[in-house]
Amino acid sequence: MTRTVYVNGEYLPETEAKVSIFDRGFLMADGVYEVTSVLDGKLIDFDGHAKRLERSLRELDMPHPDVLPDLLDVHRELVRLNGIEEGMIYLQITRGAPDDRDFVFPDPETTKPTVVLFTQNKPGLANSPAAKKGIKIISIEDQRWARRDIKTVQLLFPSMGKMMAKAAGKDDAWMVEDGAVTEGTSNNAYIIKDNTIITRHLGNEILHGITRAAVLRFAKEAQMKVEERSFTIAEAQEADEAFITSASTFVMPVVEIDDVTIGTGTPGPIAARLREIYLDESRKVAV
Ligand code: PDD
């Protein structure tokens, strides 16, 4: 089935959707994005994603597209047109397409931002077999730029990290800077020791995950102890449990780090419980 996608105000078949070769997203990775999951045909954590998107635009001095206040309607319309029950909506905004390539930002009066959204249909997303088995990861040096708190489309290094994991026969990679874990290639990283959930504090070094914020809130509401601080790979290998969070994986247990088994080598009870709580509570307030 041909997807219907959204490009600059129009709903079009994916085969007819076009963006200029001068688009700054294409030439300079001058763009920001969001991935919002869909469960039961509804959007999970839409408000959180919308707020982070506005922050990303602000931090990069990128003009707000006119459609910004109507993005919820656009997301819902794409869900409806494509009949999505479980999956994701990808949204990207770039600084637009000026007449030529130039390092200087174009005049926002004449160059309007480019806005693209499309759906990714993923039946069974919430019931993923990987969540029952857990994933295996490697550690790699974090070689990204210094403003990882902005959700830009500069994803080359994370993409290379995934390939390094794949080449090693594993599922993903955690990135390490100055001896401490920053985050996963496309997710936030956590360990659990003596019933305390430990995850890196917020800062410019990591993306402020929307799933992270929700999971930590639910954990605190369930009287679980949370510590927001750095940890090393050695500490993670000694942990009772480990897991990642993101809009596309929710809470996903990690059972091996650099060939060292974590806990019993199967998803631990706290990660499994957090996944359940996250899915239940998020479904209740999905829009
Ligand atoms: N990635 N850290 C990084 C580097 C990410 O790319 C992501 C999300 C996260 C988790 O953020 P959230 O909980 O808001 O999804 C953390 C998305 C899913 C992606 O690039 O596909």
Write the layout of secondary structure elements.
Blueprint: E1 4-7, E2 10-13, H1 24-28, E3 31-39, E4 42-43, H2 46-59, H3 71-82, E5 87-94, E6 114-121, H4 129-133, E7 135-141, H5 156-167, E8 172-177, E9 180-184, E10 188-193, E11 196-199, H6 210-221, E12 225-228, H7 233-237, E13 241-246, E14 250-257, E15 260-261, H8 269-284
Parallel strand pairs: 7-8, 7-14, 11-12
Antiparallel strand pairs: 1-2, 1-6, 3-4, 3-5, 5-6, 8-9, 10-11, 10-13, 13-14, 14-15
Helix pairs in contact: 6-8
The structure holds N-(5'-phosphopyridoxyl)-D-alanine.
N-(5'-phosphopyridoxyl)-D-alanine (PDD) binds at residues 35, 183, 186-188, 207, 209-212, 245-248.
Task: Explain what you see.
The chain is α+β, with helices and mostly antiparallel strands. It folds into two domains: 4-121, Aminotransferase class 4, branched-chain amino acid transferase, N-terminal domain (D-amino Acid Aminotransferase, Chain A, domain 1), CATH 3.30.470; 129-284, Alpha-Beta Barrel (D-amino Acid Aminotransferase, Chain A, domain 2). The protein is built from eight helices and 15 strands. The chain has helices spanning 24-28, 46-59, 71-82, 129-133, 156-167, 210-221, 233-237, 269-284, and strands at residues 4-7, 10-13, 31-39, 42-43, 87-94, 114-121, 135-141, 172-177, 180-184, 188-193, 196-199, 225-228, 241-246, 250-257, 260-261. The radius of gyration is 19 Å and the shape is globular. N-(5'-phosphopyridoxyl)-D-alanine is lined by residues 35, 183, 186-188, 207, 209-212, 245-248. The site of N-(5'-phosphopyridoxyl)-D-alanine has 14 residues, from helix 6 and strand 13.
